[in-house]
Specification:
Layout (H helix, E strand, L loop, with lengths): L6 E2 L13 E2 L10 E4 L10 H10 L4 E5 L5 E4 L4 E3 L3 E4 L6 E4 L7 E3 L4 E5 L2 E3 L12 E3 L2 E5 L2 E3 L2 E2 L5 E3 L2 E5 L2 E3 L2 E2 L6 E3 L4 E5 L2 E3 L2 E2 L6 E3 L4 E5 L2 E3 L2 E2 L7 E3 L2 E5 L2 E3 L8 E3 L8 E4 L2 E3 L14 E3 L4 E5 L2 E3 L9 E3 L2 E5 L2 E3 L9 E10 L2 E3 L2 E4 L2 E9 L2 E3 L2 E5 L2 E9 L2 E3 L2 E2 L5 E3 L2 E9 L2 E3 L2 E3 L6 E3 L2 E3 L1 E3 L2 E3 L2 E2 L2 E6 L2 E3 L2 E3 L7 E2 L2 E3 L3 E4 L5 E11 L2 E3 L2 E2 L6 E9 L2 E2 L6 E2 L6 E2 L10 E5 L7 E4 L51 E6 L5 E6 L5 E5 L5 E3 L12
Parallel strand pairs: 3-4, 4-7, 5-8, 6-9, 7-10, 8-11, 9-12, 10-13, 11-14, 12-16, 13-17, 14-18, 15-19, 16-20, 17-21, 18-22, 19-23, 20-24, 21-25, 22-26, 23-27, 24-28, 25-29, 26-30, 28-31, 29-32, 30-33, 31-34, 32-35, 33-36, 34-37, 35-38, 36-39, 37-40, 38-40, 39-41, 40-43, 41-44, 42-45, 43-46, ...
Antiparallel strand pairs: 1-2, 53-54, 57-64, 63-64, 71-72, 73-74, 74-75, 75-76
Length: 689
C-alpha cells in the first residue's frame, strides 16, 4: 500500500470564492501488513507457510498472527524460509508448535532479514550431513522471545545455528541433540548472540558445547540465564564452549556433564576477553560416558579472564574441580569452594593469577586450594582445603598480601607435604598463616639417584629454586600450625621450613643446582608443633630482625640479636587471641594486652596499615606480626559472595536476585520487571553452608 497524495491549497492569483485543489506525489512509503494464520495445515490459504510467503513478497516489515483455529501443531514438509522483515507473533508456546516432523529444519532466516519470533514452540526439526541448525538457521537479525526450542537434531546447532545476530530472551532451548558441536546453540562465523533471561538445558552433543558453542571470531553475552543439565559424550564440554568474546552476568551454569563440564574457553588472546560477573558455576562434573577433566571452568587459551562476585562450588574433575588453565585470570570478590580435582581442587593457574577479596575454601585435590605459576593474593582467605601434597596454596612466584591461610590440611603419601603455603619466589606480607597441618603418618623419604629428598611444613615452606630463589616474610603471624606423624628422616617444621640446597647431575653430565634464601622480619612464628625437627622454624634463615620465635632449635640458623627467641624448655608465648574477625575482610589473631609482640617491631620500611587495613605504628613503635593493637580503620568485615539473578523462563516470569554470602538475601521480580518484595520461594544454590 502506498501513500502518494497530499491535499493542498495554492495561493490564489486573484480573490475567489472557490479554491482549486490539486494532487502532489510524495515518496512511496510501504506500510506493514498483517497476515493471519487460521489453519494448522502446512500449505494453502490460512496456513503459516502461506503467511510467510506473503510476508516475503511484501516489501517492508510485516506481522504474522494466529487465530484460535491455528492453535495446535503445524507439521512441516519443508523448512520455512524467511527472506524479509517480519514479526511472527504466536498464541503461546503451550498453544502452538511448529514442527519439522523429524524430517526438515523448521526456520531458515536469510541474511538481511530482521525477524522476531515469539510465543511458540519450535520442535523436531532435523538436518543431516553438512547442514546445521535443526530448529533454526539464522543468518539475519533474529529475536526469539517467550518461546521453546526443543527436540531438534543437527550435526551442529541442533536447536539454533547462528551466523548473524541472535537474541534469545524469556525462552527455553532444551532437549536438542547435535551429532557434533552445539547441542542447544551454535554461534559461528562472525555471529553475535545474546541470551537474556532464558534457559539452555538438557541438550546433548557428541562433540563440544552441549549447551552452547561459540566459535573464535564471535561474541556471546549471557545475562540472567541458566545453562544446566547439558551433556557431551567424548572429550567435549557439557555447558558452554567458547572461543568468543564472552560476557556472563547474573547467571547459573550448573549440572552440566562431560570432560570439560561447566565452561571451556579456547582460542587466543586476540579472540576476545572473558567476563564472568555475579554468577554461579556449580555441580558440574563427569557423566557415564565421559570422565571430567575439569568440573567448573577450563581455559585452554591465553585470554584475559575476569571472575567477579561469583560462586564456583561443588564441581568435580580429574584435573581440577573449580578453575583450571592458562591465560591471565583475575578473581575478585568471589567464592571458590567444595570443589574436587586431581591436580587442584580450587584453582590451578598455568600463567598469571590475581585473587582479591575472595575466599577459596573446602576444596580437595593434590594442591587443594590454589596452585599457580605466578600469583598475587590480596585480602583473601584460603581455608579448610584438604590436599594430598599441599593443603593451602602453592606459587612458583607468589605474593601473599593482607590475607589469611588457615585450617588447611595435607595428607601426603610421598616425601613432601605442606599444610599452608608453599612458595619458591615471592613474599608474604601482613598475612596470617594459622592452624594448617601436615598429617605425615603415610610419608616416606626418598633416597635415590638425586640424593635424599623429603620435607614437611605445617605453615610455610620456602622451596628451593633452580639457580637460586628468594622469599621474604614481613609483618606476618605464623602460628598454631603443625606436623604430625612424619618419619624421623624427613626434615620438618610445624611453622616455617626452608628447603635445603641440593644438586644433581643430569643428562650429558650437566649439573642442576637448587637453593633458596628466606628473609624474615617483624614476624611472629610461634605456637606451632612438629613431631620431628623444630616446632616453629627449620633450616637456614636470613633474619631482618625483630621477629618473635616461640622455640628456636639448633636446626634453624640465621637469626639475630633483635629477634626474641624461646627455647624447648622455655617457649616464648606471643599471647595471641583466637583467630577471629577483628575488622577487615579476613580473620586475624589479635594480641593480648600482655603480649611481648606489642611495640616490639622495627618501624623502618613497614606497611602503612596492618592486615585489616588499620593504622600501623600505634604508640610510637610497630607491633610484631600481622595485627596492630589499637589501630583504627574503616575496612569492615564482610563475607565474600556474589550476586546472581536467576530467571525462570518463560511460563512463570519470575526473577530471583540472590546474594551468595552470609547472610543470604534475594530479591523477587515479576515478569514486568517490577519489584514484588524481599521474600518468596527461591531456589538456594549458593552458600552459606
Amino acid at each position: 500500500m502506498f501513500l502518494s497524495t497530499w491535499l493542498g491549497r495554492p495561493t490564489p492569483a486573484r480573490r475567489s470564492d472557490q479554491s482549486r485543489p490539486f494532487l502532489e506525489r510524495l515518496d512511496d512509503r510501504a506500510l506493514p501488513s498483517t497476515f493471519w494464520v487460521s489453519s494448522t495445515l502446512d500449505s494453502g490459504p490460512g496456513s503459516l507457510r502461506q503467511a510467510v510467503l506473503g510476508a516475503n513478497a511484501h516489501p517492508g516489515s510485516d506481522e504474522i498472527r494466529f487465530k484460535h483455529s491455528a492453535e495446535g501443531t503445524v507439521i512441516l514438509t519443508a523448512e520455512l524460509g524467511v527472506t524479509d522483515d517480519v514479526a511472527i507473533d504466536g498464541p503461546g508456546a503451550k498453544n502452538l508448535t511448529v514442527s519439522g516432523g523429524g524430517a526438515t529444519r523448521v526456520f531458515n532466516i536469510a541474511a538481511g532479514a530482521t525477524v522476531k519470533i515469539e510465543d511458540l514452540t519450535i520442535a523436531n526439526g532435523k538436518v543431516a550431513d553438512a547442514a546445521n541448525g535443526g530448529g533454526i538457521l539464522n543468518a539475519g537479525i533474529l529475536t526469539l522471545a517467550d518461546s521453546v526450542v526443543t527436540g531438534n537434531v543437527a550435526p551442529a546447532g541442533a536447536g539454533i545455528e547462528n551466523t548473524g545476530t541472535l537474541t534469545v530472551k524469556l525462552s527455553k532451548v532444551t532437549g536438542n541433540q547435535a551429532t557434533n558441536n552445539g547441542g542447544g546453540i551454535h554461534n559461528a562465523g562472525t555471529g553475535t548472540a545474546v541470551i537474556d533471561r532464558s534457559a539452555v538445558s538438557d541438550n546433548t552433543c557428541v562433540g563440544d558445547g552441549a549447551g552452547i558453542r561459540s566459535e573464535i571470531g564471535t561474541a556471546l553475552t549471557i545475562t540472567d540465564s541458566v545453562v544446566s543439565g547439558n551433556s557431551a559424550s567424548g572429550f567435549g564440554t557439557g555447558g558452554i564452549a567458547s572461543g568468543a568474546t564472552l560476557t556472563i552476568r547474573d547467571s547459573l551454569i550448573a549440572g552440566n556433564t562431560s570432560a570439560a563440564a561447566g565452561l571451556y574457553l579456547f582460542g587466543f588472546s586476540r579472540s576476545g576477553d572473558v567476563l564472568i560477573s555475579r554468577s554461579v558455576i556449580r555441580d558440574n562434573g563427569p557423566n557415564a560416558t565421559s570422565g571430567s577433566g575439569v568440573g567448573g571452568l577450563w581455559s585452554a587459551s591465553s585470554k584475559s579472564i575476569r571472575i567477579e562476585d561469583t560462586v564456583i562450588r561443588d564441581n568435580t574433575g580429574s584435573r581440577a574441580g573449580g578453575v583450571y588453565g592458562a591465560g591471565t585470570i583475575d578473581v575478585v570478590g568471589s567464592v571458590i569452594e567444595h570443589n574436587t580435582g586431581g591436580s587442584a581442587g580450587g584453582l590451578y593457574a598455568f600463567d598469571t593469577l590475581t585473587l582479591t577479596r575472595s575466599t577459596v575454601r573446602g576444596n580437595t585435590g593434590s594442591t587443594a586450594g590454589v596452585h599457580a605459576q605466578t600469583a598475587t593474593v590480596v585480602e583473601s582467605t584460603i581455608s579448610g582445603n584438604t590436599g594430598t601434597a599441599i593443603g593451602g596454596v602453592y606459587g612458583y612466584q607468589l605474593d601473599l598480601i593482607d590475607s589469611t591461610v588457615s585450617g588447611n590440611t595435607a595428607s601426603p603419601t610421598g616425601s613432601f607435604g605442606v599444610g599452608g603455603v608453599d612458595v619458591t619466589n615471592g613474599s608474604i606480607r601482613n598475612s596470617t598463616i594459622s592452624g594448617n597441618a601436615v598429617i605425615g603418618d603415610k610419608m616416606q623419604a626418598y633416597h635415590g639417584t638425586y640424593g635424599d629428598t623429603g620435607d614437611a611444613a605445617g605453615g610455610v615452606f620456602a622451596q628451593a629454586g633452580y639457580g637460586g630463589s628468594a622469599v621474604e616474610i614481613q609483618n606476618s603471624t605464623i602460628a598454631f600450625n603443625r606436623v604430625t606423624g612424619a618419619p624421623a628422616d624427613i626434615p620438618a617444621s610445624g611453622g616455617v621450613a626452608v628447603s635445603r640446597p641440593f644438586s644433581f647431575v643430569g643428562y650429558y653430565g650437566y649439573s642442576y643446582d637448587f637453593s633458596t634464601v628466606l628473609g624474615v622480619r617483624n614476624t611472629i612464628i610461634a605456637r606451632n608443633q612438629s613431631n620431628v625437627g623444630g616446632p616453629d622454624v627449620g633450616g637456614e634463615f636470613q633474619s631482618g630482625g625483630h621477629n618473635l620465635i616461640g622455640v628456636l632449635t639448633p636446626d634453624a640458623t640465621g637469626f639475630v640479636a633483635s629477634d626474641m627467641r624461646g627455647t624447648q624448655s622455655h617457649p616464648l608465648d606471643p599471647r595471641l587471641k583466637p583467630l577471629a574477625y577483628n575488622g577487615g575482610p579476613t580473620q586475624t589473631h589479635a594480641l593480648a594486652p600482655n603480649s611481648p609482640a606489642l611495640n616490639a617491631g622495627d618501624n623502618a620500611d613497614v606497611p602503612t596499615t596492618d592486615q585489616r587495613g588499620y593504622d600501623r605504628i600505634v604508640g610510637g613503635v610497630i607491633d610484631i606480626g600481622a595485627y596492630e593493637a589499637g589501630g583504627h580503620g574503616s575496612n569492615d568485615h564482610h563475607d565474600h559472595g556474589g550476586w546472581c539473578s536467576l530467571f525462570d523462563p518463560p511460563e512463570n516470569g519470575h526473577s530471583f536476585t540472590v546474594w551468595f554470602g552470609d547472610p543470604f538475601h534475594f530479591r523477587f521480580f515479576g515478569p514486568s520487571g517490577h519489584r514484588h518484595g524481599n521474600s518468596g520461594d527461591a531456589i538456594f544454590v549458593g552458600h552459606p553452608t
